[in-house]
Amino acid sequence: MKRGFTLVEIMIVVAIIALLAAIAIPNLLRSRITANESAAQATLRTISTALETFAAANNGQYAAVETDLTGATPPYLNRAYCGLTESGYGYACNLAVDSYIVTARPVNCTTSGTRSFTMTTGGVLATDATCTAA
Predict the structure, then answer these.
(1) What is the CA radius of gyration of the chain?
(2) pTM
């Protein structure tokens, strides 16, 4: 007697594996998007905190350039974020001595994130549910 699996048995196993993958992959992608969005919000809060701390130490005037935050001793920010892409989001900064606007936009609206975020003067975080890629 020959031992082994028949073609039908192998096809059933492959079908079960494909079904499990079809269920699991969308959940993994959604988890990644959620993690990217949370990281973007945290990064915006970090930048805003640095700007507000800088203003408190400089008579209410915000940093006009990001190097004022990264080049201070000790630095208000450990690294530069403006103009960079991190965790699927691109960051843009509009800094002035009297105000600031920092935005985080997903690189790809289907795999990086589904929302854009904006942090404005005073640490106000706004969410834009319509995705506009960076």
Answers:
(1) 23
(2) 0.81
